[in-house]
Design goal:
alpha/beta; seven-stranded parallel beta sheet; six-stranded parallel beta sheet; 27 strands; binds adenosine-5'-diphosphate; binds zinc ion; primosome; Replication restart protein PriA; PriA
């Protein structure tokens, strides 16, 4: 890839290579995207070459020229629609005619697969004389008339206030749209997009992995008479490149996609939307460990456009940026449709017998809701919060004797580790406070939940929603149909449940284990827990069937839990943000994690101890202040696939000094002989500790 042209180089002549062919006649990327990639590489301490590889469609990396295959359009012949008799018994052809009718200027070859059409169908219609091919220049841009296919909803006052702010703004602006679930954030996005399209600009919409449901896509397609491309996992390499080109050349007016779509170039950028901005799937967890939400904000500043971050439970980073006046807060506090918000209640389970992770009062309550003909949703947390040890009888928890942190429980060999100071001790046999022997890792025992539900409620179906069922489209559709039929049943699931869907007949939501999040060794545990609780609770209820949310806990009087149960997410967030500030944790400081993985624990130790020494020397010789090194410690999941994993935490009061150290450290580590025996990486702004 040619990044720049120079007439002199410090690299020895023998190491320079000849360019053998020029693949593209014009630059591949607009300048803003090129700058975004360079910034990404430097910010995440990642090689530029690999960053560009991650950012570009596979076919481009393999040398395919970045040109649309053919600028050929399919167009309807006059009079072919509605419903020509020649296609009355060919539903695919009928659908094709219908789709083309919505695109009077013609639909490009690049976009037909986006509408579920194939070339065969169009060729069959061509033979019947119902459609024709026309050709046009690649950069032709249509002015859609009228813009709307379906009218916008009448915005309510809160939505209108948000829209007024968004549409009045010029240049770069970042808005945090904090709206309770069902408050009509999507409607705000759609009307903001309309404003962007009216100014002949393109909109880029990022959605979390699992939110990529047909419903979401349909809402964008149904509303506007413009080409929409959706970058979903079902596209093959060629379709992906076509969509990329359609976006870059300005043919696609709206681009919707998951994390990696942030690298899609736009000819006329106008607006970026990041839906569910708190979602962890925006952070890539391997290779180039970027956060697409953060890149969206940086990209909008490069392209001088607006960016809307939307969520019912904003990330603490975004709330902090509102505090610092970097982002502008827009709030939607009421549900837009007719659903009413659920009631929350904490259920103390200290010393209560648990069956499959559920207490008797909870099981009884489930029975009541089912008997009344309603549905029950059971949320199991599998988010691998770093486990800690807790007394089931009194709620005592294993804490570090040297610092103000919870110990993390490691299974083999059994021991407790402090992730802050690195101290270790054996696992207690009984509770130091009440002498009970009921010491348990938090979160244990929920594996049996489904079995227990089947045993307790033999007359009601138990439907499981997790990554497996969500992955199979047909299975998921069937399950959703059953749920929406309203028959009384129990839904069991993990965080998949917390996203996207609405279950109007669910009247009871049970959260089995909030403690795992509240008392995680990971400082983000409470934030994640609250987000999940609110998101899951938001799936339930409607006007005539308001929901009830039960949170099982050993700490019913914990102030954070009370904030959540008796107040709302904002109240919870302000308390927890104050705690983060007092402890000097992100977002009030900046973090990076040096991770290492090897076949033997001695290798990771040796590498990280050495890295720690080098980092200390670098801090001293370069007079970098305000950077702390914590650890090394074993990773929360110390052994994975037979390999040992450990980490060194680097905490900086200023981003600039943290980055200065990371840059020097990276260069130094690459020279180290141990660096070749372990797999290691630097994770900037890590999300999983
Ligand atoms: P969110 O994205 O905040 O969860 P949605 O945009 O999905 O909320 O809106 C929730 C429901 O409320 C949807 O059924 C939507 O059609 C409806 N809705 C949103 N805005 C309005 C409005 N202004 N008037 C009437 N119904 C609305
Ligand atoms: Zn105890
Ligand atoms: Zn400690």
């Amino acid at each position: 890839m040619i990044a720049a042209i120079a007439d002199h180089s410090d690299v020895p002549a023998g190491k320079l290579r000849q360019a053998s062919e020029l693949l593209d006649q014009t630059p591949l990327l607009p300048d803003s995207l090129w700058q975004l990639c360079r910034w990404t590489a430097s910010y995440y301490q990642h090689g530029l070459g690999d960053t560009l590889s991650s950012a570009l469609p596979v076919l481009l990396r393999q040398g395919e020229p970045a040109m649309a295959r053919q600028q050929m359009l399919w167009q309807l012949m006059p009079g072919a629609y509605p419903a020509h008799p020649a296609v009355s018994r060919a539903p695919k052809q009928k659908q094709a005619l219908q789709t083309l009718a919505m695109h009077p200027h013609g639909l490009s070859h690049a976009l037909i697969s986006q509408w579920g059409l194939t070339r065969d169908v169009l060729e069959a219609l061509e033979r019947k004389g119902l459609v024709r091919r026309i050709s046009q220049s690649p950069h032709h841009v249509h002015e859609p008339r009228p813009l709307h296919r379906e009218p916008a909803l009448q915005a309510n006052p809160e939505q209108q206030a948000a829209l007024d702010r968004i549409t009045a703004a010029e240049g770069f602006n970042c808005w945090l749209l904090e709206g309770v679930t069902g408050s009509g954030k999507t409607e705000v996005y759609l009307q903001a997009i309309a404003h962007c399209l009216e100014r002949q600009r393109q909109a880029l919409v990022l959605i979390p992995e699992i939110g990529l449901t047909p419903q979401t896509m349909e809402r964008f397609r149904r509303r506007f008479n413009v080409p929409v491309v959706i970058l979903h996992s079902g596209l093959n390499d060629r379709e992906r490149l076509d969509a990329w080109i359609a976006a870059r050349d300005g043919e696609a007016a709206i681009v919707v996609g998951t994390r990696s779509a942030i690298f899609t170039p736009l000819a006329r950028p106008g607006l970026i939307i990041v839906d569910e901005e708190h979602d962890l799937s925006y952070k890539q967890q391997e290779g180039l460990r970027y956060n697409a939400r953060d890149l969206a904000v940086y990209r909008a500043s490069l392209e001088q456009t607006g960016v809307i971050l939307g969520s019912a439970t904003p990330s603490f980073e975004s709330l902090y940026n509102v505090q610092r006046n970097r982002y502008q807060l827009l709030r939607l506090t009421q549900r837009a449709g007719n659903a009413r918000p659920p009631r929350f209640q904490a259920l103390d389970i200290r010393s209560r017998p648990l069956e499959g992770g559920m207490s008797r009062p909870l099981i009884k309550l489930m029975g009541d809701h089912l008997q009344q003909g309603n549905q029950v949703l059971v949320f199991i947390n599998r988010r691998g919060f770093a486990p800690t040890l807790m007394c089931h009888d009194c709620g005592w928890m294993a804490e570090c004797r040297r610092c103000d942190a919870r110990m993390t429980l490691h299974q083999s060999p059994p021991q407790l580790n402090c992730h802050h100071c690195g101290s270790q001790r054996p696992v207690e046999r009984c509770c130091p406070k009440c002498q009970s022997e009921e010491l348990r890792p938090i979160g244990a025992g929920t594996e049996r939940t489904e079995e227990q539900l089947i045993a307790s409620f033999p007359d009601f179906p138990v439907l499981r929603i997790d990554r497996d069922t969500m992955g199979r489209k047909r299975a998921m559709q069937d399950m959703l149909e059953r749920i929406h039929s309203g028959e009384p049943c129990l839904l069991v699931g993990t965080q998949m449940l917390a996203k996207g869907h609405h279950f109007p007949d669910v009247t009871l939501v049970a959260i089995l284990d909030a403690d795992g999040g509240l008392f995680s060794a990971d400082f983000r545990g409470p934030e994640r827990m609250a987000q999940q609780v609110i998101q899951v609770a938001g799936r339930a209820g409607r006007a005539d069937k308001p929901g009830q949310v039960i949170i099982q806990t050993h700490m019913a009087e914990h102030p954070l839990l009370l904030d959540l149960v008796e107040h709302d997410y904002s109240r919870f967030a302000s308390r927890e943000l104050a705690a983060r500030q007092a402890a000097g944790l992100p977002p009030y400081s900046f973090m990076a994690l040096l991770r290492a993985e090897a076949n033997a624990v001695t290798q990771t130790d040796e590498f990280l101890d050495n890295a720690c020494d080098i980092a200390e020397q670098l801090l001293a010789t370069h007079r970098i202040s305000g950077v702390e090194l914590l650890g090394p410690v074993p990773s929360p999941m110390e052994r994975r696939a037979g390999r040992y994993r450990a980490q060194l935490l680097v905490l900086g009061r200023q981003r600039s000094s943290l980055h200065q150290l990371l840059h020097l450290l990276l260069v130094a580590l690459e020279q180290q002989p141990q660096a070749r025996r372990v797999r290691w990486s630097i994770d900037v702004d890590p999300m999983d500790m």
